[in-house]
Specification:
Helix content: 25-40%
Strand content: 15-25%
Largest sheet: 11 strands, antiparallel
Number of strands: 21
Number of helices: 15
Length: 622
């Protein structure tokens, strides 16, 4: 009930958000009509459509998003006809085409405000169309609802919360309309301005359709709106106990050995280690020393944290037939959640690999659960290649639908869960580090299982390349995403243009700022280069600089050249470039571009792509 009330109040607040502006013309076009037979059905249809579409978008796959796009196009066409009919009442009668006639009938019946279902149904249909177009700004409250929906899957509670949010918005719109409707009716009676007001409403409706078609409702207005409503919503959140659901957080990024954290559901993940506090119980401290109780020795009393959840739901298993919780009874199990472009995961894998080899004959089973961050990590061929490159021989469950992730109520990469021979979770660790303590837990659980020959000591790992441990003290730059959904500190003049090709200049980045040069299309998840000789500039402070890259849709290799402070990297090159800074994108993965050999200071990194098609996802540092 608390979350329902919170969602409703969040919806009410949308009346002060600029994101509501594109919807207002459709709603205020009903001013002066019967509230019960015209306005109320429209607002009800809007709330139902928004709740339905938002539920599908949160818990469905790409098909749901694509279907919604077609629905938006159909809704824009319908409402454009409605606007034309308001502007030119005689036009609808002169056209015989069914859609235009429908637009005319909707306008005429709504204008008459007659009785019965003949007036209610057209208004309800217009409301459904408006709900398909409405894109409210995702402030803290709506973000919390959508995060919970993505993590928990489809359920009635998700739809009720979204419906409560939409009902709150409809309530505030209804109150505004009741007040505005009286003024509207007074003007019609006193000034004889009914025809001009009707035409004005038609112009406003058409302008709103154009604004939505140009993406202003999800672009400029969203940016304006977040500044005006987030503080109000955050104060509401602080007054309610929201511990029952994971809280969304802003896309600030992972540095050092803290874990990457899911913050927006499986399609929206980021590595914010600064936002892991708060009331949500699954949000652990970002300090690896506080990720889990650190056992001081083999005799430490490890608490029971719960039973091993089901391992069902993986789309495929590598290196093994599907494993089950029941079939693992009698074995000590280590479950490692990872994804192959996550730098934190890559630096932890050498230890997981060494444990699997050292203790495989003593009763330890290591299971890697690959839960993707980016869309390309859902491609099974990519995961197979990554597992081969990383020399992972233990079983790997490909958890593309996040079924196992949700079963563990996990939120981090990497995340290690230690299960005893009775099938009970006895310890967990999030992020890098704590390797000696984790190995002591393995040894203790094997001893508890009755093994008398448990190996002692700690594995010796000599990692290189991207797997080498981070130089934590010198990492002053955060993980930085290039897709507009989570991008920060972008300083190219004019800002980002979403989902459209545009020419950029890099600007003058300060520390932890970045810019583009050349012609790029910035999408939700990545920036794609449309023409050769485009580049990225980033001002950073760290020993290592990595960039998650991929070739274009055609898969052709993309040549690039990197520079540091305007010169070839030389001895400061990463493993994926030569001393002159030359490299080639051959697949979708993390590329190590810089590893400094001298003192660490603020440096300017530049990468120039000699071919079109490069896709850039995220910077990480070490």
């Amino acid at each position: 009930m608390t979350l329902l009330l919170l969602a409703y109040l969040g919806g009410v607040l949308t009346i002060v958000s600029p994101c509501i502006l594109p919807v207002l013309p459709f709603v205020f076009a009903r001013a002066g009509q019967s509230f019960l037979r015209s306005t109320l059905p429209m607002l009800l249809g809007m709330a139902l459509a928004f709740a339905g579409v938002a539920t599908l978008a949160a818990v469905g796959g790409g098909w749901a998003v694509e279907a919604n796009q077609y629905g938006r196009l159909a809704a824009m066409a319908l409402l454009a006809l409605f606007g034309i009919a308001l502007l030119f009442p005689g036009l609808a009668d002169s056209f015989a085409r069914p859609l235009v006639a429908l637009g005319g009938r909707l306008s005429e019946e709504a204008e008459q405000g007659g009785s019965g279902s003949g007036a209610i149904l057209p208004s309800l249909l217009l409301g459904l169309a408006t709900g398909l177009l409405w894109a409210p700004c995702a402030g803290p409250i709506l973000g919390l609802i959508l995060t919970g929906a993505a993590l928990q899957g489809a359920n009635a509670g998700t739809s009720l919360l979204l419906l409560a949010y939409a009902a709150g918005a409809a309530t505030s719109l209804a109150l505004a309309l009741l007040a505005g409707g009286r003024v509207f009716a007074l003007m019609k009676r006193s000034l004889g301005a009914g025809e001009w007001l009707r035409r004005g409403a038609g112009v406003a409706v058409l302008a709103a359709v154009v604004a939505i078609a140009l993406g202003l409702d999800t672009g400029f207005l969203t940016q304006v709106s977040l500044a005006s409503t987030n503080s109000l919503e955050q104060r509401l959140l602080s007054r309610f106990d929201t511990a029952a659901a994971p809280q969304p957080s802003t896309p600030a990024m992972t540095a050092g050995n803290g874990p990457a954290m899911m913050t927006g559901g499986p399609a929206m993940m980021s590595g914010n280690t600064a936002m892991t506090g708060g009331n949500a119980p699954a949000m652990m401290s970002a300090n690896p020393a506080m990720m889990a109780a650190k056992p001081s020795g083999a005799a430490t009393d490890l608490p029971v944290e719960g039973a091993l959840p089901s391992l069902a739901g993986a789309v495929e298993w590598l290196n093994s037939p599907p494993l089950t919780a029941g079939g693992l009874k009698g074995k000590v199990v280590l479950v490692d959640f990872w994804t192959y472009s996550c730098i934190n995961c890559l630096r932890a894998i050498p230890y997981v690999r060494a444990w699997a080899e050292k203790y495989k004959d003593q009763g330890l089973v290591v299971i890697g659960v690959h839960a993707p961050e980016f869309a390309f990590e859902k491609r099974i061929g990519n995961v197979k290649q990554a597992a081969a490159d990383l020399k992972i021989a233990y079983p790997v469950a490909i958890d593309n639908d996040y079924t196992i992730w949700r079963a563990f109520k996990n939120q981090y990469w990497p995340a290690h869960y230690f299960i005893d021979a009775e099938g009970r979770i006895r310890h967990h660790h999030f992020g890098e580090g704590g390797y000696e303590e984790s190995e002591k837990v393995i040894q203790q659980l094997l001893a508890e299982a009755g093994r008398a020959d448990v190996a002692t000591g700690s594995v010796s790992v000599s990692a290189s390349g991207a797997e080498m441990a981070s130089n934590e003290a010198d990492v002053h730059s955060p993980e930085t995403y290039l897709g507009y959904e989570r991008a920060e500190n972008f300083v190219s003049p004019g800002g980002a243009v979403e989902d459209a090709a545009s020419r950029y200049e890099p600007g003058m980045p300060r520390l932890n700022e970045w810019g583009l040069s050349g012609q790029w299309t910035i999408g939700k998840e990545h920036a794609a280069l449309d023409a050769p000789d485009g580049g990225i500039t980033y001002r950073f402070h760290a020993r290592d600089l990595h960039l998650v890259l991929g070739p274009g849709a055609d898969g052709r290799p993309v040549r690039f050249r990197v520079a540091i402070d305007g010169a070839p990297p030389g001895a400061d090159r990463g493993i994926d470039v030569d001393a002159e800074g030359n490299g080639t994108i051959t697949g979708q993965r993390l590329y190590q571009l810089i590893r400094q050999s001298g003192p660490i200071k603020d440096r300017t990194f530049e990468i120039t792509f000699l071919d079109a098609g490069a896709q850039a996802y995220a910077f990480t540092f070490g």
